[in-house]
Design brief:
The complex is a heterodimer of chains A (209) and B (183). With 209 residues, chain A is mainly α. Helix content of chain A is 71%, strand content 0%. Chain A has one domain. The two termini of chain A are 22 Å apart. Chain B has two domains: 119 residues, RNA polymerase sigma factor, region 2, helix turn helix motif (Rna Polymerase Sigma Factor, Chain: A); 62 residues, Orthogonal Bundle (Arc Repressor Mutant, subunit A), CATH 1.10.10. Classes of the chains: A mainly alpha (209), B mainly alpha (183).
């Protein structure tokens, strides 16, 4: 077939695809579903007011910020010619703030208690639950990004994984009673990173075009 | 025509195309094709004219299927060049792998008679042959015979809507087939 003929066939097809952002409601619905099932089974923390304490509030707000930034970055990555702008730098600021909070806590408390604060009682549930909660929203987000044209499928997948992981950690933080920054700075970050890695691997496979 | 005017032309043509103007869309594709061909030939002289045209068509198909990722308020060139660079790089990588891994394909290329028309490509016909017969018929009818959607509908006893959907799916499938067969 000549290029001329291909152009004739292409211009007869007046149906442009759907924008990747159109998949956002599905991602949020998947997140709500995952959160709903999780809360129904394991409940919110019994002392919700404690979540507002100065060293505890960031464990909800920081993952939320990271999730929102990564979500914006993922959708940008799906559109060729769009620059990432300040988003990656802002995302890096999130673990920096978490580390600073943890350091502040370190200098304020007795070294004898550091190890106990850091490992807590729920390290394994935390590390398992955050990536699990992220799984369904991640799948929905990758589905949305497939409508896009990411120049680096793995990087777009990484952003998607961090978005799903960050938002999943936000949900998890309202259940979790481990309020020491030593705990959440370490293990929430690891949980989100696992989700990010999953996203990168999956993105490399499913976001090619 | 200076660069500034050409830019505005391409932007305006593609904006009209996105708003549903098929003629503007055809003009846009005709205008960018020589540029794409230049980019591909500069890198892939060793592939020969038809081999290069395969890649040009691959890029055109990608532009077509991903055009909704261009925001109509942006200039088209950065988007267009990003898509082109990505697909051309991809295509050369895929061909490199194929030539080294699958010797039978290489032999196939060597025995193929040289094509007199430099805009005639080979890959797309192989991919069209892999479509289901009706989808292949629709693509060939509209592309090569110049049928309209309405004529195709009458010929095949389909509504215009059904022809549009079938054409869109066929083009998408062509891109998927390329992706699978070239890598």
């Amino acid at each position: 077939m000549k290029t001329e003929d291909l152009i004739a066939a292409l211009s007869a097809d007046a149906t442009p695809g759907a924008a990747p952002e159109g998949g956002l409601p599905w991602m949020l619905a998947a997140l709500a579903l995952a959160g709903g099932v999780f809360y129904a089974a394991f409940g919110l923390r019994a002392d919700p007011m404690a979540a507002l304490a100065p060293f505890t509030l960031p464990k909800t707000l920081l993952p939320l910020a990271l999730g929102a930034l990564a979500l914006a970055l993922a959708f940008r990555a799906a559109r060729p010619g769009q620059s990432a702008g300040p988003l990656p730098a802002l995302m890096l600021a999130v673990p920096a703030v978490a580390a600073a909070t943890a350091l502040l806590r370190l200098v304020q408390t007795d070294p004898a208690g550091w190890a106990m604060q850091a490992t807590g009682k729920t390290m394994v549930p935390c590390l398992v639950t955050i990536p699990l909660l992220a799984l369904l929203p991640l799948a929905a987000l990758l589905g949305a990004l497939r409508r896009g044209a990411p120049l680096s499928p793995a990087r777009a997948g990484l952003a998607a994984g961090l978005a799903a992981g960050g938002l999943a950690a936000t949900l998890y933080s309202l259940h979790c009673t481990e309020d020491s920054p030593l705990f959440w700075a370490l293990w929430y970050s690891t949980g989100i990173a696992i989700s990010g890695a999953l996203g990168a691997v999956a993105g490399h496979r499913v976001l090619r075009w | 025509m200076n660069r500034q005017t050409a830019d505005q032309d391409w932007d305006a043509l593609m904006r009209a195309a996105m708003a549903g103007d098929a003629r503007a869309y055809a003009r846009f594709l005709h205008a960018v094709t020589p540029v794409l061909r230049g980019v591909v030939r500069a890198r892939g002289a060793a592939l020969g004219a038809a081999g290069c045209e395969d890649i040009v068509q691959e890029v055109l198909l990608a532009i077509h299927l991903k055009r909704h990722t261009w925001r109509t308020k942006d200039p088209i060139r950065p988007w267009l060049y990003a898509i082109t660079r990505h697909k051309v790089t991809d295509a050369f990588r895929a061909r490199g792998a194929r030539l080294t891994v699958r010797v039978e394909d290489f032999a196939d290329i060597l025995v193929a008679p040289p094509d007199p028309d430099p805009t005639e490509a080979r890959d797309i016909d192989r991919m069209i042959a892999l479509l289901d017969p009706r989808a292949a018929d629709i693509v060939r009818g509209i592309g090569q015979n110049g049928d309209t959607i309405a004529q195709t509908g009458l010929r095949l006893g389909l509504t215009e809507g059904a022809v549009r959907v079938a054409l869109h799916r066929a083009l998408k499938r062509l891109a998927d087939l390329r992706e699978r067969h070239m890598t």
